[in-house]
């Protein structure tokens, strides 16, 4: 008799462990298969994670597996190991991890292979009689084209003729699976001869290590990635390349398709369920050797990996903030080590965390400090909007920006106007001196909560009176909120009535091909201005964009996030990188109310290292990551008494832990979440900052303070970017 350990596919902490079942004698089951099992008085789905010859429990009490679900083992060995790793290090439920490993539609049984009927000419076919014109045409067609889809023949030449041929045995009809794949614009792209810097990067990145490729915008990182992938393929290995969803533009996808053809599988949010399912199976069965995709593609069942590449590694979108929460870097690091392969993290603005690791020797640093074509980086001009205001300009646009736009229009070139809109949170700012309120304890910006007319610190929960008078200059001219893309477009039209203006934001790109169509129209139109949000910030390569305007750079600077300055630096660098990529040096006009903030000085000089030093030092002094770890445990329930009671129990346990290890805790408190109620769920949170010396043990202990059978739903987050 054989036994299986099964994880039940239910999102419930109380049953999130392995259960033992008897494997029926006539079922030749393998590890990694999905099965139906009796559970209580129900039949549930589960994953077989182990097969054994002996049982741990009393065999008489064990139940039998009912049946298998798929005809192959959907979870490969590596993924089972990854599951264990994630459960232990990220404190996630086993079932919720396993769900990440296969297309959602597969679990619900809603997606199936697409089976198509085909027509072949029979080997000893009869020539149809002269009158049967349609039948002759079919025979001729099949002779010329070979196997053809049934529906095509039937539509073109008529069902009657086809059916007559079949009856005579002149054609053979068979069924076969057809893989659904997305169509792409066919583009021809010449391979560039690598520059010496690119060449050196490709040569350096060759071992089973993690490399941080720090290359300025336009330094040709993509070409380096493609060469690395080429090398992998020539060694009969496979490659996995991740790109932020937002930069998976049609252009990028088409480039990869052009370079790697049928060998590449593309995984992104634009796929239909059927396409996703088929791409996943092409990867699973080894037909696709290169996977290009957004975050979730890190879980692709690709085997024999030679390289993993994470482009724009600093992007926050690599961290899944929903449940189950994970950071793609951790998963990539696991897979690198499991496969003994290379991991490349690429960026023009590496995260403080990754760059710290590079300086510490954990990553190998590879640098490409100049643009491919030797073009100078765009000049960044910082405009003090406060001065503009004093000089009587209360428009959205500074005098300089308007003058430069005029210049672009005269030269029949293109400009991009970027509007920084991140998150819903807003801050209050003095219009006269630029003062923004910060928490006295945490040195992060306070968030304005309109409903209560209060300012709150999202890190410690402290509340402050909303500003009516500026504490710095006494002005009553307090402003909050930001301008949107629509407003900018309508203002621009006043100044440039004859110029075509495109707008790209969540509203204008909600339909399937709108993204692509806006970009291709913009590409063809000169002069033109493209106004947009984060969507236009990266990845785009438009030759004729010679000007970039940043409307309110400060929007990301005053977010209640310890990374807000870092993010502002990244954003300014990325957006600026869109300008002057071809023959003419680009210009950037950066409008701000805090012109003296150090972030703009470093960004203006493209001084990443200087910025890094300053920022890393600040984090160290104020005890923020990467020098500490922030943990938030968020409790939610529709009954406020229940959340409050349950969080109290948990908090008391952690409090005891803190008393045992006082040196490891920088901070610990429990509070209502700043957004106290969402979708009729009350939200309370425990926040802590931990020193790193004994972090693994302490974190385990912290995690064990969360009871298994709580009524509240609990989210455990590490270094979350939003604490609202
Ligand atoms: P990055 O990702 O570093 O910002 P890209 O990979 O987008 O830079 O490259 C910038 C531009 O330079 C692209 O248009 C690309 O086709 C071109 N390019 C890259 N490598 C070379 C090369 N070796 N020779 C000529 N052009 C190149
Ligand atoms: Zn605070
Ligand atoms: Zn003021």
For the termini, the CA-CA separation is 53 Å
> Which architecture of the largest domain does the CATH hierarchy give at level 2?
3-Layer(aba) Sandwich
Averaged pLDDT:
90
Bound molecules: adenosine-5'-diphosphate, zinc ion
Helix content: 25-40%
Structural class: alpha/beta
Q: How big is the Rg? A: 29 Å
Largest sheet: 7 strands, parallel
What is the global morphology? globular
Helical segment count: 21
Assigned CATH superfamily of the largest domain: P-loop containing nucleotide triphosphate hydrolases
Unreliable segments (pLDDT under 50, ≥5 consecutive)?
none
Question: Widest sheet: strand order?
Answer: 12-13-11-14-17-10-18
And the CATH topology of the largest domain? Answer: Rossmann fold
Q: What is the number of domains?
A: 5
Secondary structure: number of strands: 33
Strand content: 15-25%
What is the CATH class name of the largest domain? Alpha Beta
Describe the protein's architecture and organization.
- The protein is an alpha/beta fold and 724 residues long.
- The protein folds into 5 domains: 2-107, PriA, 3(prime) DNA-binding domain (GIY-YIG endonuclease); 115-177, Orthogonal Bundle (Arc Repressor Mutant, subunit A); 196-368, 3-Layer(aba) Sandwich (Rossmann fold); 379-424 and 483-619, Rossmann fold (3-Layer(aba) Sandwich), CATH 3.40.50.300; 628-718, Alpha-Beta Plaits (2-Layer Sandwich), CATH 3.30.70.100.
- 31% of the residues lie in helices and 25% in strands.
- It has 21 helices and 33 strands.
- It has a 7-stranded parallel sheet with strand order 12-13-11-14-17-10-18, sandwiched between helices. A 6-stranded mixed sheet has the order 5-2-1-4-3-6. It has a 6-stranded parallel sheet with strand order 19-29-28-20-27-26, sandwiched between helices.
- Helix 16 links the parallel strand 26 (500-504) and strand 27.
């Amino acid at each position: 008799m054989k036994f299986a350990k099964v994880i039940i596919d239910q999102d419930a902490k109380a049953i999130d462990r392995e259960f033992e079942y008897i494997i029926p004698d006539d079922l030749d089951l393998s590890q990694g298969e999905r099965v139906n099992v009796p559970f209580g008085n129900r039949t549930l789905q589960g994953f077989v994670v182990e097969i054994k010859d002996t049982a741990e429990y009393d065999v008489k009490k064990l139940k039998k597996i009912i049946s298998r679900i798929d005809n192959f083992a959907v979870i490969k060995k590596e993924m089972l190991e990854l599951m264990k790793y994630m459960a232990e290090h990220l404190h996630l439920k086993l079932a919720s991890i396993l769900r990440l490993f296969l297309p959602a539609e597969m679990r619900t049984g809603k997606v199936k292979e697409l089976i198509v009927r085909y027509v072949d000419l029979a080997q000893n076919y009869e020539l149809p009689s002269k009158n049967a014109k349609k039948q002759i045409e079919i025979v001729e067609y099949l002779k010329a084209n070979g196997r053809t889809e049934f529906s095509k023949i039937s539509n073109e030449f008529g069902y009657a003729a086809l059916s007559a041929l079949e009856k005579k045995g002149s054609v053979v009809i068979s069924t076969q699976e057809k893989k659904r794949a997305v169509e792409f614009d066919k583009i021809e792209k010449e391979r560039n001869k690598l520059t010496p810097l690119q060449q050196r990067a490709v040569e350096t990145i060759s071992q089973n290590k993690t490399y941080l490729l720090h290359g300025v915008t336009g330094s040709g990182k993509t070409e380096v990635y493609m060469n690395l992938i080429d090398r992998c393929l020539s060694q009969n290995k496979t490659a996995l390349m991740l790109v932020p969803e937002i930069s998976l533009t049609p252009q990028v996808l088409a480039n990869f398709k052009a370079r790697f053809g049928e060998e590449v599988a593309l995984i992104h949010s634009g796929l239909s369920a059927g396409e996703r399912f088929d791409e996943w199976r092409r990867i699973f069965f080894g037909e696709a050797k290169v996977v290009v995709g957004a975050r979730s593609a890190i879980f692709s069942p690709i085997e024999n990996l030679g390289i993993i590449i994470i482009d724009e590694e600093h992007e926050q979108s690599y961290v899944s903030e929903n449940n189950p929460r994970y950071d793609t870097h951790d998963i990539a690091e696991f897979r690198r080590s499991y496969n003994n392969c290379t991991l490349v993290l690429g960026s023009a603005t590496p995260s403080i965390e990754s760059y710290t690791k590079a300086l510490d020797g954990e990553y190998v640093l590879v640098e490409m400090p100049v643009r491919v074509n030797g073009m100078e980086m765009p000049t960044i001009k910082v405009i003090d909007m406060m001065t503009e205001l004093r000089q009587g300009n209360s428009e959205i646009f500074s005098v300089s920006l308007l003058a430069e736009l005029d210049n672009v229009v005269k030269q029949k070139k293109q400009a991009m106007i970027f509007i920084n809109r991140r998150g819903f949170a807003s801050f209050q700012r003095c219009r006269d001196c630029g003062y923004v309120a910060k928490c006295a304890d945490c040195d992060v910006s306070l968030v304005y909560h309109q409903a209560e007319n209060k300012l709150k610190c999202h890190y410690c929960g402290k509340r402050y009176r909303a500003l009516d008078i500026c504490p710095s200059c006494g002005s009553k001219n307090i402003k909050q909120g930001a301008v949107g893309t629509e407003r900018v477009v309508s203002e621009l039209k006043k100044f440039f009535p004859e110029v075509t203006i495109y707008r790209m934001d969540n509203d204008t790109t909600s339909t399937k091909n709108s993204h692509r169509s806006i970009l291709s129209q913009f590409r063809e139109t000169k002069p033109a201005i493209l106004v947009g949000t984060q969507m236009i910030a990266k990845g785009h390569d438009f030759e004729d964009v010679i000007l970039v305007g940043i409307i309110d750079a400060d929007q990301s600077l005053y977010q209640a996030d310890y990374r807000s300055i870092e993010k502002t630096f990244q954003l300014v660098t990325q957006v600026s990188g869109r300008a002057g990529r071809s023959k003419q040096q680009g210009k950037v006009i950066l409008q701000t109310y805090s012109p003296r903030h150090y972030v703009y000085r470093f960004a203006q000089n493209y001084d990443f290292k200087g910025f890094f030093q300053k920022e890393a030092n600040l984090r160290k002094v104020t005890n923020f990551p990467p020098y500490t770890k922030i943990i938030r445990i968020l409790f939610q329930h529709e009954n406020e008494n229940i959340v409050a009671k349950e969080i109290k129990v948990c908090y008391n346990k952690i409090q005891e832990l803190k008393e045992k290890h006082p040196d490891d805790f920088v901070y610990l408190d429990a509070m209502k979440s700043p957004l106290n109620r969402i979708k009729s769920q009350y939200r309370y949170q425990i926040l802590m900052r931990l020193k790193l010396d004994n972090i693994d043990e302490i974190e385990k202990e912290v995690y064990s303070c969360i009871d298994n059978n709580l009524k509240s739903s609990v989210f455990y987050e590490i270094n979350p970017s939003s604490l609202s």
